[in-house]
Amino acid sequence: MLIEKRKLTWSILLYSLLIYSVGLIMNEILDNEFFPWVKLFGVLFFVIALVLSDKGIFKKYTSYIILIFLLIVSVNLIRGDEFNIDSLRRVISTPSFFMPYLVPFILLILISQKDIPLILNGIYISGILYLIMIVLNWSNLTGTSFDMLELHNKFLSYSVTLLLFLLPLFNNKKKLVIVAIYLISFLFALYHARRNQIFTLSLSGIAAFYLYHKNSKFSVRTIMMAIFFTIIGCVAVLFQYTYNDLFVKKITQRLYEDTRSGVVENFWDDMTPIDLILGRGISGTYYCPTLSDVDTDINDMRGGIETGFLDIILDIGYIGLFIFLAMLLLAVYRGTFNSNNMLAKGFAAYLFIYLLELYPAGNPLFSLRFALVFIAISFCFNEEICQMDDEQLKQCLNENNI
pLDDT tens across 337-351, in order? Predict the structure, then answer.
């Protein structure tokens, strides 16, 4: 009965994030009154799953780090904003407001090896939804606007990079789908010359190749993967020569384009030492006369910044950022050096790439990708999971038809 309850709460939690993501994307496509309700249901289901889930905490020093971080998050959730109907509308409509700071409370949910198949299935479904959304929104994605690509990749396909690190665990059909999702995401990032996405997806591809090489028992697999990625590289070069104006020109134009320095300077100029240490809370803003935030009524005041670590500083300050980085680094270390299976090492790679991405992007969002950061931390801190070997891991997945 306890296991069934945990499966139910984990399912509700994961699929609530996907429901919200689909509602967010479809609302941008159709601008229909129905889809804000879809987002609302996603938010409500997430909160319900969080409340009903079985709670626990890790042993030893890791529990202190987690509890300090969650205390900082809790304080900043309740300071700096009025709880009224406008705030509630903003919670639902803006994936970077309030809800991302409920996501870290996933760290309190009990997790075990029995939850692994459910979580991996949820990520795979995210990838399938990505392919469906690509088909429904093809005209916009192949147009000149890159906003849609940001939504599709950051809310659906980025999470699938975790599965890319775990390819040996899947059958050939799923391997093909996972690699296809990755390549489509990467090609769209090239098409729109999105530097931060190219950076993140390139690192993910390199990490996936390394982990596949390390976890493959037969050298022929490594050779086949090398041939595969070589073919992909040749195809990419062919695309560059065939559609030079679409790929190479866009990338070379944007390579040295400065789109953020003015905003960053305004951020540092407006933040006081106390603001930098403690943050300004979830509704914190800063004076930025170069841009106006459409989400606020006060002109020239912005409620966010595209650089991930600065966005975190704005909300929870240096203290919150440093504790968050400490959790990430400790989880990466434990998953890489204190584990016996490819799952923990894959989660560690996922966290390390997210850590590097915090400079160009990596903003906290109410998304499966951001939730996986804290799920990955939980996995890497879990002794039971880290001590499993690959055979036990595969047996656990085979029993659940992964």
Answer: 999 899 999 999 999
